[in-house]
Specification:
Elements (H helix, E strand, L loop, with lengths): L1 H4 E4 L13 H16 L1 H7 L6 E5 L6 H11 L3 E6 L10 H15 L3 E6 L14 H18 L7 E7 L15 E6 L5 H11 L11 H7 L5 H17 L7 H14 L9
Parallel strand pairs: 2-5, 2-6, 3-4, 4-5
Antiparallel strand pairs: 1-3
Helix pairs in contact: 2-3, 2-4, 5-6, 7-8, 7-9, 9-10
The chain binds adenosine-5'-triphosphate (ATP).
Adenosine-5'-triphosphate binds next to helix 4, helix 7 and helix 9.
Family: Belongs to the AAA ATPase family.
GO biological process, one term: proteasomal protein catabolic process
GO cellular component, one term: cytoplasm
Length: 270
């Protein structure tokens, strides 16, 4: 059963070079996750505790999952992903059991990076904790905290969580020794959008009239995931037109199509 809820990837394909526009965040994640996994003795020599857990927060599609995968990949660690929503279970004790399984599996497969997406699903401030469903979610969160509190820093397991709803989080999970390294992952600025456009068109046959500067300028509000959809969609327009070269007009058409299908301008594919 645990194999269903958890995604295990011995060597995810994503590397730092695939991530654009969030260099500072990449540096911070490396410092918090890579150094303790790769050189634990440095922390012992200096006499500081490495950060326990890293919390990535920010809008959807900005590269939080990519970051977690990349750091696992680049440290040759097993990547183990679990969605917070999967930890919310109907039966009493099931969520806690999943949390235990998650940490047991990580220790078995160490070095490992545990990634819990949508951590808010199990770690929200509750407005009404009287309902039994909430009580079960609360138990699951307590189990998660107790696993983290019981963590021996020499164990080569690192934990990264992500949320789009930072404001909803229960402060209990942010205490020292828990998710004590907070890293905001925002939508990319113009330079970042340019870089992400480059990354996602690397294998594409582009016409000379494609101008990334102008395009990046135009894509205010687009996340990395939006830009990924845009490049794929542009390629589709070229194919429909029976061309092998992707032109500026294809990006324009893609842009219109994506803006149409999203309610908020610039927020697509989230
Ligand atoms: P969510 O909060 O919805 O889970 P996320 O922040 O985890 O989103 P990812 O799953 O990492 O986002 O990104 C989705 C896809 O969008 C990636 O596979 C990648 O193609 C593209 N993408 C997002 N951000 C970036 C980025 N900074 N650089 C390059 N590609 C990106």
């Amino acid at each position: 059963a645990r194999a269903q809820a958890m995604e295990v990837d011995a060597s995810p394909e994503v590397g730092y070079a695939d991530i654009g526009g969030i260099d500072q965040q990449v540096r911070e994640v490396r410092e918090a996750v890579e150094d303790p996994l790769a050189n634990p003795e440095i922390f012992q020599e200096v006499g500081v505790e490495p950060p326990s857990g890293v919390l990535l927060y920010g809008p959807p599609g900005t590269g939080k999952t990519m970051l977690a995968k990349a750091v696992a990949n680049e440290t040759d660690a097993t990547f183990i992903k679990m969605a917070g929503s999967e930890l919310v279970q109907k039966f009493i004790g099931e969520g806690s059991r999943l949390v235990r399984d998650l940490f047991d599996l990580a220790k078995e497969r160490a070095p490992a990076v545990i990634f819990i997406d949508e951590i808010d699903a199990v770690a929200s401030k509750r407005t009404d904790s009287k309902t039994s469903g909430d009580a079960e979610v609360q138990r699951t969160m307590m189990q998660l905290l107790s696993e983290m509190d019981g963590f021996d820093d020499r164990e080569d397991v690192r934990i990264i969580a992500a949320t789009n709803r930072f404001d909803m989080l229960d402060e209990a999970i942010l205490r020292p020794g828990r998710f004590d390294r907070l890293i905001e992952v925002p939508k990319p600025e113009v330079e970042g959008r340019r870089r992400i456009l480059e990354i996602h068109t690397q294998g594409m046959n582009l016409a000379d009239d494609v101008d990334f500067d102008a395009l990046a300028d135009d894509l205010e509000g687009y996340s990395g995931a939006d830009i990924n959809s845009l490049t794929t969609e542009a390629g589709m327009f070229a194919i429909r037109d029976e061309r092998t070269e992707v032109r500026a007009e294809d990006f324009e058409a893609a842009r219109e199509k994506l803006d149409e299908t999203s309610e908020e301008p610039g927020v697509v594919g989230a």
